[in-house]
């Protein structure tokens, strides 16, 4: 009832909000209040970050958390269906804005500092750009990628990374087509190769799941509010690095793994490298397109979305298993052809043997010119 009051009783938000309790990335066993969350915030943290999922287990393993956990930033877990709607109605708490980490343009609280730093560093010359930067935050436009502060090594490195992977992002977008609005470098990943995020004004994966479950749902409004999806790639992940290779040096044996699953994963990674190096050498390679589709489907599920065709996804997974075990795509088709030819040859041999068995040889009288027994 308290969370329902956040939606319907806007006049008592200040009284109701301190009573709310949530699980967090730093308190997965006990519920935490928003006051405790604000007290534990770092000095440079300017927002309250949250993630809405269908269960606590899904929240713990979500790829959106990787960089935040690495930076020791606490995240609220919204695991009840009403949680996300309640937080969106609150918008702020103690002058701290609620930010969904599954949406695009996650800045981790340093955008305002960067704005003030530009104004202090360059004065009035940079004031128009600073104003545009502030306005762009409300319209979902990220102008940070166009600005590099002299002497800031992190910004210079980020700009170089974007230039290095720019062709790869364009190529992946071309392969995926209308499935994604764009492909960009991620600021939120550290161990996952890619993640699928929602548009700034669209539904999150959790909200989309809830709206699909509603009886008599409006399909047209569902497609409209779904908004655009953005594929973010991790430039530090081995798969993405191998995708960006200009030349493939040939197949390599995977290093010794600790267990069978790890060995299969390394074998799969080597094969993906072999297939996807075609993104530079052979952009129309069917093998590279298959690998990109598989990466997209994996990001779709790990990000909390539901696949449009589970059966098609299952076939891709089976094909991936065949590749990992056999070392190439489509081994099942090759094995089926070999098996069919062997069966055909066996049937031919069987029919020939049956024909030879059914053939009857009639006895004939043998006569010689001189038969001594007739004398």
Automatic annotation (TrEMBL):
Keyword Transmembrane: no
Protein name as it appears in the record: Heat shock protein 90
Region (Disordered): 335-375
Low complexity bias locations: 341-357
Record organism: Gossypium lobatum
Family per record: Belongs to the heat shock protein 90 family.
Keywords per UniProt: ATP-binding, Chaperone, Nucleotide-binding
Keyword Iron among UniProt keywords: no
Segments of skewed composition (Basic and acidic residues): 364-375
Highest taxon, organism lineage: Eukaryota
GO molecular function, one term: unfolded protein binding
Gene3D superfamilies: 3.40.50.11260, Heat shock protein 90, C-terminal domain
């Amino acid at each position: 009832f308290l969370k329902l009051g956040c939606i319907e009783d806007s006049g008592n938000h200040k009284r109701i909000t301190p009573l709310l309790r949530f699980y967090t990335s730093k308190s997965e066993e006990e519920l935490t209040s928003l006051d405790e969350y604000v007290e534990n915030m770092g000095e440079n943290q300017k927002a309250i970050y949250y993630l809405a999922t269908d269960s606590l287990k899904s929240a713990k393993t979500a790829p959106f958390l990787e960089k935040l956990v690495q930076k020791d930033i606490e995240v609220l877990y919204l695991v009840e269906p009403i949680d996300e709607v309640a937080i969106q109605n609150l918008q702020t708490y103690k002058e701290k804005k609620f930010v969904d980490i599954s949406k695009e343009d996650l800045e981790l609280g340093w955008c305002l500092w960067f704005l003030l730093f530009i104004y202090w560093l360059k004065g009035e010359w940079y004031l128009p750009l600073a104003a545009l930067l502030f306005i762009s935050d409300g319209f979902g436009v990220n102008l940070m990628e166009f600005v590099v502060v002299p002497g800031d090594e992190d910004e210079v490195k980020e700009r170089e990374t974007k230039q290095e992977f720019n062709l790869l992002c364009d190529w992946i977008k071309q392969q995926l087509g209308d499935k994604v609005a764009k492909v960009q470098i991620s600021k939120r990943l550290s161990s996952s190769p890619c993640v699928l995020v929602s548009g700034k004004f669209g539904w999150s994966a959790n909200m989309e799941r809830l709206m699909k479950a509603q009886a008599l749902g409006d399909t047209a409004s569902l497609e409209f509010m779904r908004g655009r999806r953005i594929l973010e790639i991790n430039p530090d992940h081995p798969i993405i690095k191998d995708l960006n290779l200009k030349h493939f040096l040939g197949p390599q044996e995977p290093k010794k793994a600790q267990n069978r699953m790890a060995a299969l994963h390394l074998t799969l990674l080597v094969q993906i490298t072999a297939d996807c190096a075609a993104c530079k050498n052979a952009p129309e390679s069917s093998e590279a397109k298959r690998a990109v589709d598989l990466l997209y489907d994996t990001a779709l599920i790990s990000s909390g979305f539901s696949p449009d065709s589970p059966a098609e996804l299952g076939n891709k997974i089976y094909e991936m298993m065949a590749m990992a075990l056999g070392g190439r795509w489509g081994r099942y088709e090759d094995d089926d052809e070999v098996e069919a030819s062997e069966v055909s040859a066996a049937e031919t041999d069987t029919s020939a043997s049956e024909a030879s068995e059914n053939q009857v040889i009639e006895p004939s009288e043998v006569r010689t010119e001189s038969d001594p027994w007739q004398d």
